[in-house]
């Protein structure tokens, strides 16, 4: 059978029954029914049932199951039932949390699913790539990921990186010519493109020949890394910590068990005591709380226009100390509007042009021909710089589509931020005219003549100086300048960038891209938060400096440096001087990576924005790679750990504030869990050392640790952002969460809880009834931990942050208190939970004792934690 690569493009189109207008809706729908969706089958997801079963693999749960079994053997059926119920409830809670967290992460993934540009009904539309069908015409541009296999129909300097299939990292030049050999490798099929590869350069039109599992990558899909998201450093740390702690505690419990037996205590009692201690100490909810808080946090961030692609980014965000940001579209609005034009030797405001002057008209027409953007029904598609040109033309009755149809394009060298130029060849009145537009500093050296209304003449040094002076003038006002030049070329001449020389200059078009309203405040907030904002742009130094000054990034123009000056610095020199520069102009994407590295070598955590295909390496090098959601290429998005839906700088600053809060909230939730556990351990140890009766039955600790403790912990994790978060300096990424200060706090807060509980226990013992004593100890421990939930909300006093500002903590508290009282008061539960009835006086005492740790904690915070305002 002849393969697609052996046939001509027209033959393949005929076979697949497609015209250059693309499929129509009916046809596309019919084909969808035949071929299905363009998706790769993913490895089987863990079912909810499997997640539920997975909950029983936990060390703590295993200990409990053993305890339940032993109780059963000893005839204590009631204990067995209670333990089993609590264990099952805990497993259900764990499963719900797990599934919820997975769902919210899946939702995030759906937000970033790839989009394809497709010709349908003779119109260019954007489509989720899963809706591509065989026979669709895909339009490819630099930075696009290819999501189906296909035969090239058109190729303009199209280069594709196929490393995911072939391992070859150098981009392959593609062409449309048929290749007559059969049985050749993928790498040799130069007229085919493959799913999983991406466009590094140029443009192309592709006829889809295979989708989903039929694509080459689909055939090897089982080799793809479908591994789930890796755990974040914090999660891994906590897992390790949890494991060590569990092991240590199990050993201690064994030791205490042996000592007890040795002392002559009954086997059952000693066993239950050891189990109690294990249950009290193992922080069961630790890792799952982190997952939940991270998952909720990312959802909140998505609502605020920042999509987290890699969970670890949430943690590192709080440590970001430098933001390297693009200018265009991120700090500015990316809504370019032409302000002034330099043509025919004079500067003319945009609304004073005269279309009857041939050169003035020619400047506008050539600018339209050397652009791809279109504006139809007030909808703009394409590069904002070019949209400004289209709008200028419209003002003078020049319609871009009409003009492009009148002077058809024969060839092109697409815009590339490396060269800062773009060229096309158009057929104009039987001549082939090459038009080049781009940055003046690049273009001027390629110009030899200039055109005015009096004719074409050699460009003198004086002319050059004048043009440069005008350019400087425009730039000083923050305008972006495009120069336009042209020359006649031989018909059908294949052009590449080496043809961009001996050009005839026509004029300059200067456009305004105002700073975003929010930029100034966001920059100020960054500086306040100890974060250095740095502008990196492909634009002219003077333009960049003007904008940077307007938004407060730069004070002294000496803080701006240009790409070529940067090139002259060695890595060492750059590292030494990097703190002196806040604006980098005329920078190529390759230089961005040097800037990131220089900051990182200085010990900083760097967030870097990017949109182009060449930004990938810098985005990967940065600690937080931030891709643009609107103007960003798929390649940039793929390399990033966060995507800005609105391309807005202030969204990064908000994300950092969220990142800081989420980290603090997780830390506080952990503090809450560990200090509560510590309290319980201290009481148990106290009783052991003094040879007192067991203060808690295992069910008591089960009830607290597995049921009433999780909700307040989650509620603490959901604490709203504190306005003062952005007054702190960035957190040192190398400081471990569980450091000395943190551990000391855990112990001190644990001691406070333990003191209250021990007092209640001793008073209970003085009644002579051990059941009353343990009931009082249990109730005080449970209640004081619930009240302690309010302490753990912040390092500041609850009165400084607002008593009711986190409603979840109140909800968790109320549910906890109600459950506790149900256990104490409902006759059915009192026996099951081994509690004795308490007198009102005893209850009142317990309430007061439970508030004691809270009061001491708040008193300390009010007096010693200085509130920053
Ligand atoms: P950043 O987004 O990083 O702030 P930028 O978008 O301003 O940078 P580029 O898009 O690389 O940077 O543009 C650099 C220069 O290239 C511009 O100053 C302009 O002169 C020229 N330029 C921009 N867009 C085009 C285009 N579509 N065609 C030709 N030249 C262009």
Automatic annotation (TrEMBL):
It comes from the Bacteria. PROSITE patterns: ATPASE_E1_E2. One of its GO terms (molecular function) is ATP binding. It is a multi-pass membrane protein. It is found in: Endomembrane system. Residues 3-76 form the Cation-transporting P-type ATPase N-terminal domain. The chain crosses the membrane at residues 59-75, 81-99, 245-264, 270-296, 669-689, 701-720, 741-764, 770-787, 808-829, 841-860. GO terms for cellular component: endomembrane system; membrane. GO terms for biological process: monoatomic ion transport. Keywords: ATP-binding, Ion transport, Magnesium, Membrane, Nucleotide-binding, Phosphoprotein, Translocase, Transmembrane, Transmembrane helix, Transport. InterPro entries: ATPase_P-typ_cation-transptr_C, ATPase_P-typ_cation-transptr_N, ATPase_P-typ_cyto_dom_N, ATPase_P-typ_P_site, ATPase_P-typ_TM_dom_sf, ATPase_P-typ_transduc_dom_A_sf, ATPase_P-type_domA, HAD-like_sf. Belongs to the cation transport ATPase (P-type) (TC 3.A.3) family. Type IIA subfamily. This is ATPase. It comes from Lysinibacillus macroides.
């Amino acid at each position: 059978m002849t393969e697609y690569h052996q046939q001509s493009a027209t033959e393949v189109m005929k076979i697949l029954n497609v015209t250059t207008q693309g499929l129509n809706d009916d046809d596309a729908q019919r084909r969808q029914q035949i071929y299905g969706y363009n998706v790769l089958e993913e490895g089987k997801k863990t079912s909810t049932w499997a997640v539920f079963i997975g909950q029983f693999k936990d060390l703590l749960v295993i200990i409990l199951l053993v305890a339940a079994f032993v109780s059963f053997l000893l005839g204590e059926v009631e204990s067995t039932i209670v333990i089993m119920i609590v264990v099952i409830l805990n497993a259900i809670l764990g499963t719900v949390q797990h599934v919820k967290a997975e769902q919210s992460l899946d939702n995030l993934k759906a937000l970033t699913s790839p989009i394809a540009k497709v010709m349908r009904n003779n119109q260019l539309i954007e489509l989720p790539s899963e809706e591509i069908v065989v026979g669709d015409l895909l339009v490819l541009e630099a930075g696009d990921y290819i999501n189906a296999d296909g035969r090239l129909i058109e190729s303009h300097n199209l280069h594709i990186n196929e490393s995911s299939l072939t391992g070859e990292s150098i981009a392959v030049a593609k062409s449309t010519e048929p290749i007559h050999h059969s049985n050749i490798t993928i790498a040799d099929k130069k007229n085919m493109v493959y799913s999983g590869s991406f466009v590094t350069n140029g443009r192309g039109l592709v006829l889809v020949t295979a989708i989903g599992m039929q694509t080459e990558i689909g055939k090897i899909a089982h080799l793809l890394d479908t591994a789930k998201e890796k755990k974040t450093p914090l999660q891994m740390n906590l897992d390790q910590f949890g494991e060590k702690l569990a092991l240590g505690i199990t050993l201690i419990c064994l030791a205490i068990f042996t000592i007890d037996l040795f002392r002559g205590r009954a086997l059952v009692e000693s066993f239950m005591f050891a189990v109690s201690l294990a249950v009290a100490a193992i922080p069961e909810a630790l890792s799952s709380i982190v997952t939940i808080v991270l998952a909720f946090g990312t959802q909140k961030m998505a609502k605020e226009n920042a999509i987290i692609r890699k969970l670890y980014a949430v943690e590192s965000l709080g440590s970001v100390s430098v933001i390297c940001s693009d200018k265009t579209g991120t700090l500015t609005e990316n809504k370019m509007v032409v302000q002034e034009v330099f043509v025919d030797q004079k500067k003319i405001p945009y609304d004073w042009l005269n279309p009857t002057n041939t050169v003035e008209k020619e400047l506008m027409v050539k600018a339209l021909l050397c652009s791809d953007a279109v504006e139809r029904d007030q909808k703009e598609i394409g590069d904002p710089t070019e949209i400004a040109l289209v709008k200028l033309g419209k003002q003078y009755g020049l319609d871009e589509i009409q003009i492009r149809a009148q002077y058809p394009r024969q060839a092109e060298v697409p815009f590339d931020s490396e060269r800062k130029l773009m060229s096309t060849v158009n057929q104009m009145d039987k001549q082939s005219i090459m038009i080049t537009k781009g940055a003046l500093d690049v273009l001027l050296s390629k110009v030899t003549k200039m055109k005015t209304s009096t004719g074409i003449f050699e460009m003198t040094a004086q002319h050059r100086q004048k043009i440069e002076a005008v350019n400087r003038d425009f730039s000083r006002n923050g305008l972006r300048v495009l120069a336009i030049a042209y020359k006649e070329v031989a018909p059908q001449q294949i052009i590449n960038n080496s043809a961009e020389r001996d050009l005839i200059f026509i004029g300059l078009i200067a456009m305004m891209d105002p700073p975003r309203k929010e930029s100034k405040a966001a920059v100020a907030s960054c500086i306040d938060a100890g974060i250095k904002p740095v502008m990196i742009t492909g634009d002219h130094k003077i333009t960049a400096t003007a904008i940077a000054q307007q938004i407060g990034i730069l004070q002294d123009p000496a803080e701006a440096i240009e790409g070529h000056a940067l090139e002259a610095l060695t890595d060492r020199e750059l590292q030494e001087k990097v703190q002196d520069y806040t604006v980098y102009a005329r920078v190529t994407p390759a230089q961005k990576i040097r800037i990131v590295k220089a900051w990182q070598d200085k010990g900083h955590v760097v967030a870097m924005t990017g949109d182009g295909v060449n930004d990938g390496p810098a985005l990967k090098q940065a600690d937080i790679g931030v891709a643009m959601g609107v103007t960003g290429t798929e390649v940039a998005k793929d390399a990033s750990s966060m995507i800005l839906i609105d391309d807005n700088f202030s969204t990064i600053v908000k994300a950092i504030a969220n990142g800081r809060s989420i980290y603090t909230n997780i830390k506080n939730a952990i503090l809450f869990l560990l200090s509560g556990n510590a309290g319980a351990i201290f009481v148990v140890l106290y009783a052991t050392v003094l040879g007192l009766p067991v203060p808690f039955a295992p069910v008591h600790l089960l009830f607290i640790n597995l049921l009433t403790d999780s909700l307040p912990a989650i509620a603490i994790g959901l604490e709203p952002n504190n306005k003062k978060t952005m007054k702190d300096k960035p957190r040192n990424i190398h400081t471990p969460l569980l450091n000395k200060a943190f551990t000391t706090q855990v112990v001190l807060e644990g001691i406070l809880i333990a003191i209250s509980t021990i007092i209640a226990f001793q008073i209970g013992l003085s009644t002579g009834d051990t059941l009353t004593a343990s009931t009082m100890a249990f109730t005080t421990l449970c209640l004081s931990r619930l009240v302690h939930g309010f302490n753990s909300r912040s390092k500041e006093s609850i009165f400084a942050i607002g008593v009711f500002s986190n409603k979840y903590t109140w909800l968790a508290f109320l549910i906890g208190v109600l459950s506790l009282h149900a256990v104490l008061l409902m006759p059915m539960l009192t026996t099951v939970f081994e509690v004795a009835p308490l007198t009102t006086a005893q209850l009142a005492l317990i309430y007061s004792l439970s508030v004691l740790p809270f009061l001491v904690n708040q008193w300390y915070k009010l007096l010693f934690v200085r509130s920053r305002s």
